[in-house]
Amino acid sequence: CAVKWSPKGDAALILTTTSVDTSGASYYGSTNLYLLLSENRSSLDGDALCVPLPGSSTSSSGPVLDVAWMPNATKPAAFCVVSGKMPTMASLHNGVSAEPTFLFGNSHRNTIVWSDHGRFLTLGGFGNLAGGMDFYDRNKLKKIPQFDPNTGADLGDNGNTASCAVGYGWSPSSRYFMVSTTTPRMNVDNGVRLYKYNGLEICDKSIVSWDNSKFCPDQLLAAEFVPSRHDDYPDRPQTPPPKRIEGEAAATPLASVVTAPVAYVPPVGRYVAPGARKGGMSLAERMRKERETVTMGATKVIPKGIAGAFAGKKLPVGMAPADQGKSKNALRKERQRLAKEKQEQVEEEERQRNEQEEKLRLDAAANDPVKKAKKLNKILKQIVELKKKDSACLNEDQMKKVASEAEVLQQLADLNIS
Length: 418
Description:
By secondary structure, this protein is of the alpha+beta class. It has 6 helices and 19 strands.
């Protein structure tokens, strides 16, 4: 069990772990996350709230890989959670109701690192993952864009990659993010890498004064920023992008920027294993699909009360409909299902109408005296033909028909048709 207190100390996140999963969903046990509020903030009489995790069948299930409070006590309380199987889902939650307010999307991440001011947030895939990092602006709920400092060219918002990361953290100014590779966790490539708040690695020797070659292969034990008081540095927003330079200078890319990964194309004529042919699901194929495909992108979560209040009504400007989370394929299948149900309903109504019309026609024919007299005369004619035959050759039905001659004559007389 792990307890993480909020910056004000009036709430705590409790992460419980069991070695056995009674539901059988996981071999590695189960985790549950709860929010416990102080008496003056909770209406549950000391009971803990189960933190609802997106994509879970229950109110709180896992695995929960990391959870962290937003450290700025002057802002509304909030916390971030990374949960689920790879690629995991990172979500931002309200610090009082525990309801999710924003989903960062699926990616290979297992670590949450807040800046000291609570404005910037790093989601990293450290440890046994490849070291991918995404940098978000908490106020804008968007990835922080990167720009070439020399040309002003837009480099996108793909973050960066810090392989073999052991230590990491934000500077007290919230403008720099540091990643270190240290011994004894890693006995090779020891050193420190510094990044700007948007994920661009800083290679300028005037800013990075140390030489990583002095620490290789296994000479660096630890690396940390020198702490300072919270009010020593102001809470600064993102720096406006530099003015874009046109011409030949703009064609020179920034050498230190890690570009987005490009899908692997095997050389022509190279042997491909049978399991990987024609979209097979070999291990390499699955890894490429997970790397190149994002199951769900970043999206804002609409509270259930607000979504239900505007159901069937015109939504306010800028508010998304309640079914925004559905994929295009799911919406298409739903339309097809509704169309099929409507077609089946029309066909059933047509069948019932035809049966009713046939029944009315038969009833009308049975009550018509002329048609009934015609039918009775036909039966009398059959009886006359049967009486001409030897009675020993008649079967039981034929003998019954001959015996009903008087009854048929009486019905014909009752019709009073000459």
